[in-house]
Amino acid sequence: MANKRQKANIAAAIKQSGATPDVTTQGSMTQPNSAGVSIFVPNRGAVATPPPLNQPKKKVKLSNEQNIYMAKKKIGSFSISLVTIILILGLCFVILHPFLKLVPTVLSNPEDLGNPNIIWLPEEFSTMSFEMATYHVMKAGPMTIVSSISYALAIMAIQVFVSAMTGYTMARVKYKWVTPLLFVMVILSFLVPRQSLLVAQYVYFQHFDAFYIMRLWGAETNLIGNPWSLYMMAILGFGVNQSLMILIFSQFFKNIPKELEEAALIDGCGFYKTYFNIMVPNAIPAIVIVAILAFVWNYGDTYFTRYFDPDGQYLGTKLATVFANNDTQKRMVQDTATRLFGLSKASDLTFDAVKQAGVLIFLLPLLAVYLFAQRWLVENLESSGLVG
Amino acid sequence: MNLTYETKRKLLGFTFLIPYLLGFLMFFAVPLGQTIYYSFQKIDIPEAGGMSFTFLGLQNYINLFATEVSTVDSNTQILRVLLDENTNVLINMPLITLLSLFLALLANRQFKGRAVVRMIFFLPIILGLEVVTEMLTISTGSEMVQSSGLFAEGLVARLLIHYTAIPSQYLYPIIDFVENIFSVIARSGVQTLVFLAALQSISPSMYEVAKIEGATAYETFWKVTIPSIMHIVMFVVIYTIIDLFLTSQIAEEVYNFGFVVHGSKIGVASALSVVYIFNVLLMLGLALLLFRKVVSSNG
C-alpha cells in the first residue's frame, strides 16, 4: 500500500521536473530490484523516444525493429525469472532438506531404521524416539524447556538493555580520547575468540573475588555451577556475542539526528530522560533485531552454560553433552534403549534417531519464536543500524 | 552545580559505560593477562587445591609445536590441526560470503511468496547454531553408514564424472562442495541478514538514475549495487572469519587441554590460546590487506 503511494509520488515528481527526474524522496521507498532489473533500454539506433512514465499507454505502431526488440526483452526477462525461481526453490530445498530427512528417521519405529525402502515416509508411526529423547534430555520434564527459554529471555533482556546503553554513549557522547578507545576495546573483545580466555575465566569464577573487594567480608566464592556467573557476564557486557550487539546499537544511534536530542534538551529533558523517553522508543528496529539474535544465540549457546553452569537445566547443553559423538555416550543411549524401552537391538541408527528427536524438541520453541518474530525481523531490517 | 551542558553529559554518559568497563576488566583484560602469564608457566594442581606455578619460559610453546598431539586424534600434531583449520577458513570464508550475498540478492527480488522465501533463507540463523549443526550430522559408526549422498550419487554428478573431460582432481572438490552445501549455508544466516539490510538501504534513486542512463542489469549490479555494499562486505568477511574460528577444532583443543586432559596441561592450553589469538588476528589482517588491494585496484 505504502509502495503504491510512493510510486505515485515519484511519478508526480518526475512529471513536474520534466526531462531531468530529480527524485529526492525521504525514508523508505520502493524495494530496489537489484540483480536482474528489467530495464527498458531504448533502441539506440531508432529515433523513438520512450513514452513518459505516467501517461496512459497509447497504441503506438511499432516498427519491425522495435517489435523484435520487445520480443527479445520479453524472452530475456522470462528466462531470468525462470532461472531465479529454480534457484530459489533449489536453495529452499537445500535449507529444508535436513528437516525433511528427519521425518522418517524420527517418526518411525526404531527397529525399522536402516530399512532402505524408507525414504520419505515412515512405515510404522511411532513416537519412541521422542520418548527416549525426552528421557535423556529433559530430566525435569517440561520444566527443562521452560527454564531454558526463561534463561534465554532473561539474558536477552539484560543484553539488550546493557548493549543499548553502552552503544548509545559510545555513539552520542563525545569524549576526546575515550570514544575511539572504547571502539577499539569493543572490536578487540569481538575479535579475540572466547575459547582462548576460557581457562583464565574459569579459574576467575572458581575463585571469584570482585577486585579483592569481597575479601573484606569473608572469603572468595566459587561461582562455577551458579547461574549468577552467566547473568553477571551479560550485565557487564560480555555475554554471548555482546560486543557485536554493542556495535549494532552504536551504529544505529549514530544515525539518529542530533535535532532530536536538542529538542529534548530544550523541552527540559535530562540525559536519562532523553535516553529512556526519546531514544529508546526510536531504537525499536535495532532493539528488535538485537533481541531476536540474542534470544537465538543464548538459547542455542552451549559454551558459557556448559562451562560455567554445568549442572543447570539448559536444553542445548544437555543435547550437546548427552549426544556427544563418542562411544561412551553412544553406548549409554543404546543401553537405555534396550533396557528401558524394550528394543530388541540398538545400533548407531537408534542413537541418531534419538539425537535427532532431541534436536527437534530443542528447535520447536525456537521455530515458534522465529515464525512469530521473522516479520519484524524483515520489516525492521532496513533501519536497524546493521549496516551503519 | 556549575557544570556546563557538555561536561554534565559526559559525566552522566559515563554511568552508562560503567558496566562495560567493569566487564572489560573482569572478563577480558584480566583473563587475557592471566592467559599470557599461564602460558609461560608449568601449572600443577595439588591435592590441597589451588595452583602452583613454575616458570618455564617458552617451553610450553616449544612443546606445543614440537610434541603435543591433538586430543581428538592422537595421530595428528597440533601444528597440523592449526594448518588444517586455517586452510578450512581460507576456503570457506569466500564461499560463505559469496553465498550469503547471493541469497540476499535473491531474497531482495520482487516475486510472489517472497515472505516465505525470506523466512526460509533466514532459517540458517537458527540452523547454524553449533548444537544444531552438530546434532544434524549423522554419526558414522561401524555399522550402516547412512550416506547423505544426495548429489554425489545423483544423475548430474555421474554425468559429470563419466561424460565430461573435467579432470577428477578439480571435479571431486566441486562435487564435495555441492554435497556439503548445507554446512556452508548453515554458517551464512547472519551474513544473509546483514547483506539484505545493506541491499535495502541502497537509495532507490540510484537505480532510477542507472535506468535513465540506460545501464543494463549487469552494469547496474557492478556499478551501483556492489560499490554501495562494499563496506558491508568487509564486515561480513570479519564476522565469517571469527565465526569459523569459534567453531573450529582449535577451540575444542583449547578446552580439552585445559579441562579434559586433567592436571598440568593448563600451561599448554594457555599457550595454544595465545597462538590462537595471534592466528585469528593474522588471518583478519590478511583479509583486510587483500580487501584493501581489491578495493583500490577497482578504483
**Quick one: how many beta strands of chain A?**
0
State the oligomer.
heterodimer
Specify the overall morphology of chain B: globular
Radius of gyration of chain B: 25 Å
CATH fold call of the largest domain in chain A:
MetI-like fold
Percentage of residues assigned to helices of chain A: 55-70%
Q: Report the biggest beta sheet of chain B as strand number plus sense, adding barrel if it closes.
A: 2 strands, antiparallel
* Overall tally of domains of chain B: 2
**Largest chain interface and its two residue counts?**
A-B, 115 and 114 residues
Shape of chain A: flat
Specify the number of helices of chain B: 15
Count of helix runs of chain A: 15
Q: Judging by the overall fold, what is the CATH architecture of the largest domain in chain A?
A: Orthogonal Bundle
State Rg of chain A.
29 Å
Strand residue content of chain B: under 5%
Describe this structure as you would to a colleague.
- The complex is a heterodimer of chains A (388) and B (299).
- With 388 residues, chain A is mainly α.
- Chain A has helices at 2-17, 64-107, 128-137, 143-172, 178-191, 198-206, 227-235, 242-254, 258-266, 271-282, 284-299, 303-308, 315-322, 327-339, 348-379.
- In chain A, helix 3 packs across helix 15 (348-379).
- By secondary structure, chain B is mainly α.
- Chain B has a two-stranded antiparallel ribbon with strand order 1-2.
- In chain B, helix 1 packs across helix 15, helix 13 packs antiparallel against helix 15 (266-297) and helix 14 (249-260) packs antiparallel against helix 15.
- The radius of gyration of chain B is 25 Å and the shape is globular.
- The interface between A and B is large, with 115 and 114 residues.
In short:
The complex is a heterodimer of chains A (388) and B (299). Chain A is mostly helical and 388 residues long.
Write the layout of secondary structure elements.
The complex is a heterodimer of chains A (388) and B (299).
Chain A: H1 2-17, H2 64-107, H3 128-137, H4 143-172, H5 178-191, H6 198-206, H7 227-235, H8 242-254, H9 258-266, H10 271-282, H11 284-299, H12 303-308, H13 315-322, H14 327-339, H15 348-379
Chain B: H1 5-38, E1 41-44, E2 52-55, H2 59-66, H3 78-107, H4 114-122, H5 124-127, H6 130-136, H7 155-163, H8 168-179, H9 181-186, H10 189-200, H11 204-212, H12 217-228, H13 230-246, H14 249-260, H15 266-297
Antiparallel strand pairs in B: 1-2
